[in-house]
Amino acid sequence: MKPPTPSRATAPSAGPVPLGASPAAAVVCGIGAWVPPRVVTNAELARRLDTSDDWIRTRTGIRRRHVVAPGVSTGDLALQAGRRALESAGGAPVEAVVLATTTPDRPCPATAPEVASRLGLGGVPAFDVAAVCTGFVYALATASGLIAAGLARRVLVIGADAFSTIVDPHDRTTTAIFGDGAGAVVLRSGDPAEPGALGPFDLGSDGGLADLITVEAGGSRQRSTGRTAPAPDHYFRMDGKSVFRQAVLRMTESAQRVLDRAGLRIDEVDRFVGHQANARLLDAVAARLGLLPEHVVRHIDRVGNTAAASVPLALADAAHRGVVRPGHRVLLTAFGGGLTWGSAVLRWPDCRPVL
């Protein structure tokens, strides 16, 4: 089904919140997702790498992943997910676009303005958020702030990454893990007590551990030396064991903090949508929090780790399959390079995903 084309006219400004007025809440009113059609199975990887289907599945829980075709960019993925989220929300115009990504189309400019233009959104403010795999949660918090400040009444939030373009194709430890995709939600101004209202949030970072997850080449630090970076420095690298330990710790602590702020007990959480980095990671965080296995949303087996797209893709898939239903209390938690981490809670609205 082809979604309606949004108006090219710029939506009127919401204006600032009057002094003394209560800030509006950001309410989820649309959700969409997109993965490229090309599927790479574990068996295909095993034919060209020193690995096997069993090795990948037992260590990550991944059976397949989707990857972009030559010439397809993160912006293309974001465009598809954005269109679907707008259709899910009824096609109403949005007043800002926030795109979370670590694989922008170009180092400069940001990818979001072009995505907004391609969506026919006129001159709305649009910008990128870079927090690696925590990016979507950071973007949700940022968009919620725009709505609370009265700067926008509707915001399109997209998480999109094409990690297959930055992993070493000969490295089984990263090539087997990552996939490409995009997920998006539309947030509108609403009441904090209504279904779909986001909040509270918990965000954090630790730049002292930045080297655990990195792409060394391409930035000002490398370029300012005047030296050509060796080929491996252009690829994504991470210290897997250290990252796993940090992810379990930070996601658990962040999730507990946001539940405390919301005044919720863990047994009041209906669904846990964590960053789909590794099946063992999801199990470890759920166990530490005291969540039952049936409350954990799993999507990683079919798409791999899609970085900033991970949480919205899993959420859209779960809502589509009826795993997440209207009225469910949902806990979102993510962890990524930076290091960064973040969590949020919401009660799921009656919102039909468009995939």
Question: Which terms would index this structure?
Answer:
single chain, 355 residues, alpha/beta, Peroxisomal Thiolase, Chain A, domain 1, 2 domains, five-stranded mixed β-sheet, four-stranded mixed β-sheet, 11 helices, globular, disordered N terminus
What does it look like?
This protein is of the alpha/beta class and 355 residues long. The chain has two domains: 25-190, Thiolase/Chalcone synthase (Peroxisomal Thiolase, Chain A, domain 1), CATH 3.40.47.10; 198-347, Peroxisomal Thiolase, Chain A, domain 1. The protein contains eleven helices and 13 strands. The strands form four sheets. Strands 1-7-6-4-5 form a five-stranded mixed beta sheet. Helix 3 (74-88) crosses helix 4 (112-118) and helix 8 (240-262) packs parallel to helix 9 (279-289). The longest helix is centred in the last third of the chain and has 23 residues, at 240-262. Its EC number is 2.3.1.180. It catalyses: malonyl-[ACP] + acetyl-CoA + H(+) = 3-oxobutanoyl-[ACP] + CO2 + CoA.
